Amino acid sequence: MTTAAPAKTEYEAVIGLETHCQLNTETKIFSSESTKFDPDNPNTNVSPICLGYPGVLPVLNEKVLEYAVKACLAINCQVAPYSKFDRKQYFYPDLPKNYQISQFDLPIGEHGWIEIEIAENPKAEPIRKKIGITRLHMEEDAGKLNHGGSDRLDGSTYSLVDFNRAGIPLVEIVSEPDLRTGKEAAEYAQELRRIMLYLGISDGKMQEGSLRCDVNISVRPVGQKEFGTKVEIKNMNSFSAIQKAIDYEIERQVEAIANDEPIYQETRLWDEGSQRTKSMRLKEGSSDYRYFPEPDLPPIEVSPEQLETWKAELPELPIAKRHRYQADYGLSAYDIRILTDDRALAEYFEAAISTGVDGKQVANWLIGDIAAYLKNNNLKIDEIALKPEILAELVGLISKGTISGKIAKDILPELLTKGGSAKELVEKKGLIQISDTGEIEKIIDEVLAAHPDELEKFRNGKTKLRGFFVGQVMKKSGGKADPKLTNQLLGKKLQG
Amino acid sequence: MIDREEVKKVANLARLDITSEEEEQFTTQLNSILDYFDQLSELDTEDVAPTTRAIETSNITRTDTLKPFPDKQALLDSAPEQEDDYFRVPKIMASN
């Protein structure tokens, strides 16, 4: 007889993200040189201001303020009526002034939230979850270090500094510890990126470092109120890396607790090669950054009028589109997610259906053949010759029965590359669907006469051959026979 | 009041290497400076809003217009060490 094992402790992870987004302004946050990503030409976009030479005066780029406020509005933050910059002091060679101009106690935005959708698999109905945003603040980026003598920091004998990135405007968005899984965190980061791209204020390229996420994570037994020891993970340069790093870290921490091993408060790096997190440095107490107000920059007061103007300039955001598409077009959550993932695609879709054609049909073309074409040719939706009204025309021709779906598929490549009217192309090529019963019957008779053996086999029970006959009729008609009508008429003829 | 430990901590944060005589000296000096400023606490500031700066001004911004700095070389040349177009800095972390 076995005795019941003690109930296994269930653990949950508590995860928060700190996300840095580079703003795609022309010039740096406090000085007028370019923000261009140019790693091959180090120290070309630099000035005495971003290098912190003595006697210089930083001045805030008005676009940075506008973009930061728009980002605040888009993530439902309260925009501070009075905000200021502070100096965050620390020493590191990528930081030329020995302090970073950031925002400490009066950030431009606080108390926001975004909504994420979590689906078990792509086709499943998603669960919606609100993730709190603690704050959004503006700050400058640091330079980039190349370590000499070794590809690793700890083995290098010296380092080379490129300050092209120093002074590039960033917004840092700090989430509440509302995330529970790697998937939720990855989804949260993707939604933030989507919002930034919709706003057009950041290019969101993780590979180039214009979107960077640091993860704070601890685990605790389910039901426990206190947080476990917090570990920070850095160095993830894709959404899947965020998910994998968190899942790995949850497992590592749960195992440590189960084995009575300590969890250290530390920073760990995600190592893509070994798919593990590795300890980088222990954190001894919280860092002492000795923040104080930046005396060179006056405070920022966003007036209610200015706020209203910027609010009015916001596009419809992904969350609003998702909810509206669901309510108005009866599309599946899967279709909606794909269509709204990219603002240009969503707007293309909306332009096409504004002509009154069926949304589901348009969605199918966009998600199927057109998406495949874009992917294979590395194009964006607004780079193809097929304009939304022509796609609408094509869909309209199918639903009116003028052409079959098959013909539409055949002429799509030409429309995609050359554009022009779908209707004219169909007429020019003589591709109008044959919907005349007599005409189709004639073709069927010819096909049956040409294949007596197959016909005999069919009549002897090999009913699978029906598909063969349909294919022959379609082929003989040049794809123009109305498939539904063909099927119907063929059914009768085959019975003899 | 600031004690000697605090002075050591601040020196460490500022990456200053100070002798024990200097620790003693700075502790005394910093305390006398702090005492001097402490006279301000005699004022009644009950109804005075906190201020972060003396000049009443806000929202000073510039347009997002490119004006590259013309003499990049001068900036590099001001550094103690350079290599190609990089600033060169000594080893950052002691290996362990």
SSE order and pairing:
The complex is a heterodimer of chains A (496) and B (96).
Chain A: E1 11-22, E2 60-61, H1 62-74, E3 78-79, E4 86-89, E5 99-102, E6 109-118, E7 127-140, E8 144-148, E9 158-162, E10 169-175, H2 182-199, E11 211-221, E12 231-236, H3 239-258, E13 266-271, E14 276-282, E15 292-293, H4 304-312, H5 318-329, H6 333-341, H7 343-353, H8 359-376, H9 388-399, H10 405-418, H11 422-428, H12 437-450, H13 452-459, H14 466-476, H15 483-495
Parallel strand pairs in A: 12-13
Antiparallel strand pairs in A: 1-10, 1-11, 3-6, 4-5, 4-15, 6-7, 7-10, 8-9, 11-12, 13-14
Chain B: H1 4-13, H2 20-38, E1 61-62, H3 72-77, E2 82-83, E3 86-90
Antiparallel strand pairs in B: 2-3
Number of separate strands of chain A: 15
Beta-strand percentage range of chain A? 15-25%
Distance between the termini of chain A: 72 Å
The unreliable regions of chain B are none
- The CATH topology of the domain at 1-42 in chain B is given as Histone, subunit A
Distance between the termini of chain B: 38 Å
Q: Could you describe the largest sheet of chain B, including whether it forms a barrel?
A: 2 strands, antiparallel
Spatial ordering of strands, largest sheet of chain A: 3-6-7-10-1-11-12-13-14
Helicity range of chain A: 25-40%
Number of separate helices of chain B: 3
Can you say what the CATH homologous superfamily of the domain at 1-42 in chain B is? Answer: Glu-tRNAGln amidotransferase C subunit, N-terminal domain
Based on the structure, what is the oligomeric state of the protein chains?
heterodimer
**Which strand order does the major sheet of chain B show?**
2-3
Question: Which regions of chain A have little confidence, pLDDT < 50, spanning 5+ residues?
Answer: none
Query: How many domains, in number, for the residues of chain A?
Result: 3
- CATH architectural designation of the domain at 1-42 in chain B: Orthogonal Bundle
Secondary structure class of chain A reads: alpha+beta
CATH domain class of the domain at 1-42 in chain B: Mainly Alpha
